[in-house]
Amino acid sequence: MVVRWLETFTQAVGGKRGRWLTLAAWILIVALLNMTLPSSSKLKDDTLANFDASKPSVQAEKLIAEQFPSETGIPALLTWYRASGLTDEDLAGIQQLAKQLAADPVPNQESVVPLDKLPLPALKQQVSEDGTTLVQPVLFDKTAGSDGLKEGLTQIEQATALIFKDAANPFQTKLNDESGSGLAVRASGPVGIAVDATGLFKSADVSLLLATVFLVLLFLLLIYRSPVLALIPLIAVGFAYGAITPLLGWMADQGWIAYDSQSLSIMTVLLFGAGTDYCLFLIARFRSELKEEGHTFTALKRAFSGSSGAIAMSGLTVVLSLLVLLLAEFGSIQRFAIPFSLAILIMMIASLTLVPAFLGLLGRASFYPFIPRTQEMAAARAKKKGKPAPVPQTRPTLGDRLGEVVVRKPKRIAVITTIILVICVIFATQIKYTFDTLSSFPADSPSREGFTLIADHFNAGELAPVQVIAQTQSAEQGEAIKAALAALPFVKKVTDPVPGAANPDLLRYEVELAVNPYSIEAIAHIPELRQAAEEALSASGTGTSTADGIWIGGQTAEQYDTKQTTGDDAKLIIPVILILIAILLLAYLRSFVAMLYLIATVLLSYYSALGLGWVVLHYLFGTDAIQGLIPLYSFVFIVALGEDYNIFMISSIWKKARRMPLRQAVKGGVSQTGSVITSAGLILAGTFAVLATLPIQVLVQFGTITAIGVLLDTFIVRPFLVPAITVLCGRLAFWPASASKAKQTLSRSVD
Asked: What pLDDT is recorded for position 528?
């Protein structure tokens, strides 16, 4: 039944008529989608929130918006600096800018601190002690998108250039001016960070796409030495991309999903990497069959029959694993689910329909100039040219040698590879994490340069003070809270309380920390701030419910919620993905034992990738800490994509085990899948490694660790550890079914 269905399907997509119909259908569908649906790039939103209304920092922000409406804007901190000291002319120009912004606000501006109304002596008191730096806050509308904020900053830059027209534009002046004579200004704070983040992703989109296409094309040319074959996967990925982007745009337009630039960037890498892999699984099998079968369509049918099950199973594993991300509370993680799973699903469909159509159209010419032929065809071709018939090569391939080593010394191979991976795992215990957004930016980005100026000449805590709100019942309580907060050793300054607009008993304090407000150290102090405020309320003896009477907001509080939320997400998502993969492996292989060691090995490679990735990032790239989201991001891709290779190889071993001893089947499976999995692994790792060339550290770290994980799977886990364990398990590898029963079952599932 299965064989007949596969023959019918292959005829439908790769037969004489089916191949043209399949190609025409793809062209028509992609054209209609792009003509009728909006593009995904037009509907991406880089201002999407990561939390729902239940998070403490969100509740605090809502309270601030309701009770302290005059201070609800998002600040841009214009940080003015002159190495030799700000002059009276500099300060006069800054005052003129403040006056102009108050009289003629730029787009999305809410307010500006009235520095123009301060007498010069009072303004000089706002300058840093060394006289070099001044911070000028400008508040923007919180509902403005990154494009709107950028427009506002651009107009501020234009106004600044006119005011200081007799000198260089302060926004363009380099901070490392050796003469110390140049006036510079940098836009930092939440507005500067948001604008820089969007700009970095926008500049990365095109370069990432071009670099990924070039890398995949280069790898395919080097591996297969065929320009025609190199284009087939890229064209298939191009068609899939053409279908995915309008579908994502349509779903976003309907309000069903939301995504940002980061989601689209990583989706592009995933599509080219994993998509090319699926194409190669079929192409490699087709080339192998062409060496045994003279009729091209018969070879294609056999290739499709032998690889379609593994491709579908691999794709299904990744799609379902990515959909698990919908369970995440943290928005940035949850937003990955639909774009990534849709990309893999459509690419899997393309590899099972469009790629066979191309192979059916081109036939053996797909591999030009190194066309695979049967021995009879090669002999006839040589005879026609008056040359002797080529002698069949009997030298063992590298895959043959690997398979031979594994089956001869499985115990030694398993022990050595496990020790290597465990050593890498040990380094994972040394990883330091951060939730500092600015640490992901290049050192010369304006917002990071501005933050550095503030940290060096004022106090880093001024960049993003913590907002503490308390429900009090007396003035004494308000003073007690301020005193308790100010007494904390990590607090630099606490402002006088500001009463709420509608509820004067609701007091807001701005707490300036003595440490970087984006650091992991600052995040750890949030519970201490809350405890100090609650104890001050409780000590008054008024019976106030302190648990409901304290709210903490601001950037540091948001990062604390990020740390807590992503930690909870990891505790949920990781087990669910493992259980899901276990169920799929059981359904596919019908073996509980094989399922256990396949999951165990890919988990081992994941933790090894974390450890080895930390070594590379810390000791080679100089990274002090990696972003806290990286482990979960990398887990999803390394585990799901790593199982792809295991499934493809194990399905080959299981199929061969129907007609030969297990050791021989393992040797043949390693040999048969070795070259294609190595090629696929190199391409997939290479595409993720492209992320390491971008100026965004979170993508550099994610790409580096994921690429290392793919390489460990490709060169250690797949060719050595998994087949060695399979040999050591022997008949137990098929448990609970007997070997013969398992072989019969697998003949129905892998054919």
From this structure: 92
